[in-house]
Write a structure and sequence with these properties.
Blueprint: H1 2-20, E1 26-31, H2 36-47, H3 49-52, E2 55-58, E3 67-72, H4 76-85, E4 90-94, H5 97-106, H6 139-142, H7 148-156, H8 167-173, H9 179-182, H10 225-237, H11 269-281
Antiparallel strand pairs: 1-3, 1-4, 2-3
């Protein structure tokens, strides 16, 4: 019996290693659009990311702002031809994403954080991504008696904490070191209408209407069980809530949700911008 169990374990390990193995290298390219034509080309590429299975780590926003795209080896030549045709130069930010993931996991760095340090680097300097840099969010408990500010936060406010808004999507992203799996953004509900087994939904500004896209926004607002759960929870407690904060693993942004109408902002928008800029350019973590 012991021998059978041992053989089963060996078989399971072999099975897992075979089916988690990735057959291509994924590289992250950095592009900086300089003209309106180049920017429009990148925006069109973003909205049709499913055609080449591209993954935009930093999406196109304006001229002079970097755009980072993860590209698989199988479509690399086609991708580079498109860049050349549009006069776009590039630098390589990450040569092999899966190799970097494995190195970070070996060091047991647990949280995925993309550090965009482009403002302090030359455009030709590849820099580096701390995509698995450890970042602890348990200070509210561990520093309660040490940090006076945290003591006040805990004593004066009631905290409602949702540790994971997308449990099945997150669990799937941990199932392999394949960058296409590790960078999964959507849930895992079954859908029809594209070439993938699961065409699932997420919600995000700058999203796509195509079901096969990495950033498909869903059929309607609150079409998914995950977003419905958040909506219902907020409705129940809306009279008690003074602030709503989300922590994102991919990029370090300070965002506030007032983008659905042009020129419409909250009364304290200047305070929000000042707070954002203070943390952006200060030495505070």
């Amino acid at each position: 019996m012991h021998g059978l169990a041992t053989n089963f374990v060996y078989f399971f390990v072999y099975f897992a290693s075979v089916f988690s193995k990735n057959d291509q290298i994924f590289t992250v390219y950095r592009l900086i659009p300089r003209t309106r034509v180049q920017l429009e080309f990148l925006r069109n590429l973003f909205h049709k990311d499913y055609e080449l299975e591209l993954d935009f780590w930093i999406e196109p926003s304006k001229n002079g702002r970097p755009v980072d795209i993860m590209v698989g080896q199988k479509v690399q030549s086609t991708f580079l031809e498109k860049l050349t045709a549009n006069g776009l130069n590039f630098t390589i930010r990450v040569n092999d994403v899966e190799k970097l993931i494995k190195e970070r996991e070996h060091k047991k760095w647990r949280k995925t954080v993309l550090r965009d340090d482009s403002t302090n680097r030359d455009a030709n300097n590849a820099g580096r991504y701390d995509i698995f840099r450890y970042k602890s969010y348990d200070e509210l408990v561990t520093e309660y008696y040490i940090n006076h500010n945290i003591t006040n936060y805990v004593d004066k406010f009631t905290w409602y904490i949702v540790p994971n808004l997308n449990p099945d999507g997150y669990e799937y992203s941990r199932s392999s070191t394949n960058p296409q799996v590790r960078g999964w953004r959507k849930n895992r509900s079954l859908r029809t209408g594209c070439t993938h087994e699961r065409c699932c939904s997420g919600v995000n500004y700058g999203s796509s209407e195509n079901r096969c896209s990495h950033v498909y926004h869903g059929e309607t607002a609150f079409s998914e069980l995950e977003t419905q759960a958040v909506r219902n929870f907020v409705k129940i407690h809306r009279q008690e809530m003074d602030a709503f904060i989300t922590l994102h693993a991919h990029s370090q942004f300070w965002a506030f949700p007032y983008g659905y109408l042009t020129g419409y902002y909250p009364r304290d928008v200047k305070d929000l911008v000042c707070t954002c800029m203070f943390y952006r350019y200060s030495n505070l973590q």
